[in-house]
Design brief:
Blueprint lengths: L2 H24 L2 H20 L5 H25 L2 H21 L27
Helix pairs in contact: 1-2, 1-4, 2-3, 3-4
Amino acid sequence: MSRMTRLLALAAALLGGICWVLNLYVDASALWWPGAVLLLGTAGLLGLGLARLPWVAAVAGIGTAALSGSLAALLRDAGEAQVVDAVIGAGAALLVGIAMLLPVRGRRHGGARALSVDRTTGPGNHRR
């Protein structure tokens, strides 16, 4: 995941979490929709970082957002909707705070160590 995508996901999670927490106190559905869009967008952006191939990343992003949305809907049905939304929003804001404290790790390119081939030795021409 690139640095810009990470910052965008963190900002969206923070704003979405704040919207859902404020929705508990303001009791306005106008804050619920932007919070939902921002939090589902965050889940999608984080899902994009799970794969390297573009089409696999797209499927992972959509799947992560869909799974997050269905989990939030399930939790909302289990309790009072505004309270559950506020808890989810506070959790998202808390996770953003923790993520901001963690250092950014760079991606290692290549994965495994590259093998070096000596051109003077071919098949069957091993030095001893």
